[in-house]
Design brief:
This is Heme chaperone HemW. Probably acts as a heme chaperone, transferring heme to an unknown acceptor. Binds one molecule of heme per monomer, possibly covalently. Binds 1 [4Fe-4S] cluster. The cluster is coordinated with 3 cysteines and an exchangeable S-adenosyl-L-methionine. This protein is of the alpha/beta class. The protein is 40% helix and 19% strand. It contains 17 helices and 14 strands. The strands form 3 sheets. It has a 9-stranded mixed sheet with strand order 7-8-6-5-4-3-2-1-9, with helices on both faces. Helix 8 links the parallel strand 5 and strand 6. The two termini are 26 Å apart.
Length: 410
């Protein structure tokens, strides 16, 4: 969750949504994202809305404390119940992200989940995920999560090579993420993801292959692999600007992506989104698919973003300001926007093109259809699905996904 917030119109003090946003809500899937903004240290590449203990000291008092965060976030879950009303809609997915959610006690994560269960109800097959730092969990912690209802976990591995982790300022030791997978399996987790990053300055092709091999050897059923994005204002951006480490170029990113596709496919993984692979449909991240398909989700926590029925809003960033608003009985929303039908059409094209199923050609305007025909002739879209009325990226198209989607929405 990037730290910068957009502009927007004010959010009502009670968080009320326009009637249009709630129309037909009972027919739409609902997910919850719970943001835990705490980190033990700040990674050099991270631009997310996160805070270390030092950064919070003196700025939020007791309101910004990790110790009472679960209760504070539960207040927003109760607010969500009031805003969304009494339509019978069980929650389909819950995703706890950060930051480092596992800096909180395992019981706190379970308590937040149970607040959603008590206020809304959970679907019988609900997907319940938390992110985890490999150094912040142990078998007992994982067992508590599993017993409390979590059934999916995502470990931030990033790389298996120590010198790459050092550039990223990651604190875990090589081998620990792989051990965490085994511990999660022993605790009863059905689905385990490993997050990887490629294109770190100083990383070689062999380093990347070693990371992929180590991840696969651990036995997850899901792997996410993202190209490193150097965000302005981060420590890594400053180091690159000073010439301390080199910037990785787009050609290297493309080569690393091809290595990932080849390695993961050979191991029985299929891509279902440009940066995500799973061993089966059951292993796909349903929560992320809510985002990609424009469904409804409530984002609770500082800086968290939400979307319900074409209305998008975002919370104040600072944990102290967030907790203060809730303590005063106000919505922590900082701003919102009501999406037009054209906005929603464009977003569908932007997001659904990245999926294995692609996007219906019926969503494209005349210029976009002309661009799709060019993309087809250039080998960027698959011919079979195109004949059936869908734009689906080829492997080459995935390498150029951002450019392809820009052409289709113009």
């Amino acid at each position: 969750m990037p730290s910068a917030l957009p502009d927007g119109e004010p959010v009502p003090a009670d968080g009320a949504l326009p009637a249009s946003a709630l129309a037909g809500a009972a027919e739409r899937p609902l997910g919850f994202y719970l943001h835990v903004p705490y980190c033990a240290t700040r990674c050099g590449y991270c631009d997310f809305n996160t805070y270390t203990a030092t950064e919070l000291r003196g700025t939020g008092g007791v309101l910004a404390s990790r110790d009472n965060y679960a209760e504070t976030l539960t207040d927003e879950i109760r607010l969500a119940r009031k805003v969304l009303g009494d339509d019978p809609r069980e929650v389909r997915t819950v995703f706890v992200g950060g930051g480092t959610p596992t800096l909180l006690a395992a019981g706190d994560l379970v308590r937040m989940l149970h607040a959603i269960r008590d206020e809304f109800g959970l679907a019988p097959d609900a997907e319940i995920t938390t992110e985890a730092n490999p150094e912040s969990v142990d078998p007992a912690y994982l067992a508590t999560l599993r017993e409390g209802g979590f059934n999916r976990i995502s470990f931030g591995m990033q790389s298996a090579e120590q010198h790459v982790l050092k550039i990223l300022d990651r604190t875990h030791t090589p081998g620990r993420p792989e051990a965490c997978v085994a511990e999660a399996r022993a605790a009863g987790f059905d689905h385990v993801n490993l997050d990887l990053i490629y294109g770190t300055p100083g990383e070689s092709d062999d380093d990347w292959r070693a990371s992929l091999d180590a991840a696969l050897g651990a036995g997850p059923d899901h792997v996410s692999a993202y190209a490193l994005i150097v965000e302005e204002g981060t420590q890594l951006a400053r180091r690159i600007r000073r010439g301390e480490v080199p910037m990785t170029d787009d050609d290297v990113h493309a080569d690393r992506y091809l290595i990932a596709e080849e390695t993961l496919s050979a191991a029985g993984f299929d891509w279902y989104e440009v940066s995500n692979w799973a061993t089966s449909d059951a292993g796909r991240c349903l929560h992320n698919e809510l985002y990609w398909r424009g469904a409804d989700w409530w984002g609770a926590g500082p800086g968290a973003h939400s979307h319900v029925g074409g209305v998008r809003w975002w919370n104040v960033k600072h944990p102290g300001a967030y907790a203060g608003a809730l303590a005063a009985g106000r919505s922590p929303g900082a701003g919102r926007e009501v999406l037009t039908e054209e906005d929603r059409r464009v977003e569908r094209v932007l997001l659904e093109l990245r999926l294995r199923e692609g996007v219906p050609l019926s969503l494209l305007r005349e210029a976009g259809l002309a661009a799709s025909r060019r993309a087809l002739s250039e080998g960027l879209l698959q011919a079979g699905p195109y004949e059936d009325g869908r734009a689906v990226l080829t492997l080459r198209g995935r390498l150029l996904a951002d450019a392809v989607v820009r052409d289709l929405v113009d």
